[in-house]
Amino acid sequence: MDLVAPVVVEPLRRRRCSECRQGPLERMIVEYNQPVCLDCADLGHLVFLRRGDTALTRRAREQSALWAVVVRHNRRRTRYERQGLLVEEAALARAEAACLADAEARARRRARDAERRAVRDAGVTEALRAEILRLFPAMPPERAVEIAVHASAKGSGRVGRTAAGRALDRGAVTAAVRASVRHVDTPYDALLMSGVPRHQARTRVSAAIETVLRAWRAPGSGHRDAPGVTGTTGAEGTPGRADR
Questions:
Q1: What is the pLDDT of residues 125-152, one digit of tens each?
Q2: CA-CA distance, 144 to 174, in Å (whole number)?
Q3: Which of 12, 14, 49, 151 could form a Cys-Cys staple with 176, CB 3.0–4.6 A?
Q4: How far lies 203's CA from each of 89, 178, 211, in Å?
């Protein structure tokens, strides 16, 4: 039989229990569109366990005969978001003891997992760096490293983290290089700061970007500033920024 846990709400405004009239309520359930306090709902003996520790949450839930999900409404995202659980106090104590008993083993496992992820991430970055230099052999090697590291940063959602980027799709790799050139080698950022709309600013610097890319595609040709290109800074000395 599937378990259906009670849902407890942390109200955003002051509410009183519709049965005992106590309040304001820190947490409540809703019955027939009316707020009911935890004591009246027979949940007052449970203790709150804030979300965040996955192992502790799982074990406390498994140990507790009665538990409830605690949520709060996020107005900006227009949805309810989980805040934690209400569990039996004895169940929480048992779960904490179990977590303490194997804390060292779990820490070692997390360290091994982190090491494996770091190796995998380094491989993604190295593959991207090599492909950048294959497509743009005249690019300074240190610049290729900079672009690859930035584009493949974990959790960034940038080109190197997309499926196309990981597959070293030519268009995706070129897009990462183009974005770097836009921010570092042209007045693009300064144009934005001066109030020029993004699409207009991109149009203004497009020729300068193509000049840099052509120079980097030609083996043996060093990168020289093209008309409207400002080297490693934005216009008027404004430091360039990498792709967002």
A1: 888 999 999 999 999 999 999 999 888 8
A2: 12
A3: 151
A4: 63, 13, 14
Please tell me the pTM assigned to this model. Answer: 0.47
Q: Is the pLDDT of residue 46 over 70?
A: yes
Distance from C-alpha of 188 to C-alpha of 147, rounded to nearest angstrom: 17
Q: What is the 3-state secondary structure (H, E, C) of 136-158?
A: CCCCCHHHHHHHHHHHCCCCCCC
Could you tell me where the DSSP H helices lie in the chain? 54-63, 89-101, 103-135, 141-151, 163-166, 170-184, 188-193, 198-217
Which tokens belong to 27?
């947490």
**pLDDT of the residue at 166:** 62
Which amino acid is present at 112? Answer: R
Q: Please enumerate in sequence order all residues whose Cβ is within 8 A of that of 89, keeping only pairs 6 or more positions apart, or say none.
A: 45, 46, 47
Buried b (16+ CB within 10 A) or exposed e, 38-74: bebbebeebebbeeeeeebbebbbebbeebbbbbbee
Among 27, 138, 47, which residue's Cα sits nearest to residue 96? Answer: 47
More confident: 163 or 50: 50
Query: 21: Cβ–Cβ under 8 A, 6 or more apart, which residues?
Result: none
Give pLDDT, residue 159: 59
Cis peptide, bond prior to residue 24, ω within 30 of zero: yes
Q: Which residues contact 224 (CB under 8 A, 6 or more apart)?
A: 215
CA–CA separation, 243 and 230 (whole Å): 17
* 211-243 pLDDT tens trace: 999 999 976 544 444 444 444 333 333 333 344
